[in-house]
Write a structure and sequence with these properties.
There is one protein chain. This protein is mostly helical. The protein contains 6 helices and 2 strands. The chain is globular and about 55 Å long. The N and C termini lie far apart (37 Å). 15% of the residues are buried. The structure holds calcium ion (CA) (2 copies). The site of one calcium ion has 7 residues, from strand 1. This is EF-hand domain-containing protein. It holds the Pfam family EF-hand_7. Keywords: Calcium, Metal-binding, Repeat. InterPro entries: EF-hand-dom_pair, EF_Hand_1_Ca_BS, EF_hand_dom, EF_hand_pair_protein_CML-like.
C-alpha cells in the first residue's frame, strides 16, 4: 500500500553502502567487526582478534602488536570506534577482510 513512503532502516543501510574511494564502506567495517566479535558483546578481545587473524595466517605475536595498535585507550578490548579508526588508516587491509568475510 504505502510501501514507498515507509522508511525501512535496513534498506537505507544497504543503499548507503557505496561510499569512500576504497570500495570498503562503514557498513563493511561493521560487518568485519561483527565477524571479529565472536561472542557478540560489542567489543573485540585479544583472544577474538587472535583467533580471527589466525585464519589469515597472522601469528599470535603480530595479532598482539595489532591489538596494541588498535586499542587506543588500553582497556584490553577493541571497541567499534577504535576499530573504525584503525580501519580508516588501513583501507587496503580492510579490503582484504571485506573480501574474505
Ligand atoms: Ca567480544
Ligand atoms: Ca579499547
Amino acid at each position: 500500500m504505502n510501501k514507498e513512503t515507509t522508511p525501512d532502516p535496513f534498506q537505507t543501510k544497504i543503499s548507503c553502502r557505496k561510499m569512500g574511494d576504497s570500495g570498503v564502506s562503514s557498513a563493511d567495517y561493521e560487518r568485519i567487526f561483527k565477524r571479529f566479535d565472536a561472542n557478540g558483546d560489542g567489543k573485540i578481545s585479544a583472544t577474538e582478534l587472535g583467533d580471527a587473524l589466525n585464519g589469515f595466517g597472522v601469528s599470535a605475536e603480530d595479532a598482539k602488536r595489532m591489538m596494541d595498535a588498535i586499542d587506543k585507550d588500553g582497556d584490553g578490548c577493541i571497541s567499534f570506534e577504535e576499530f573504525a579508526d584503525f580501519a580508516k588508516d588501513n583501507r587496503a587491509l580492510m579490503k582484504d577482510f571485506a573480501k574474505a568475510f
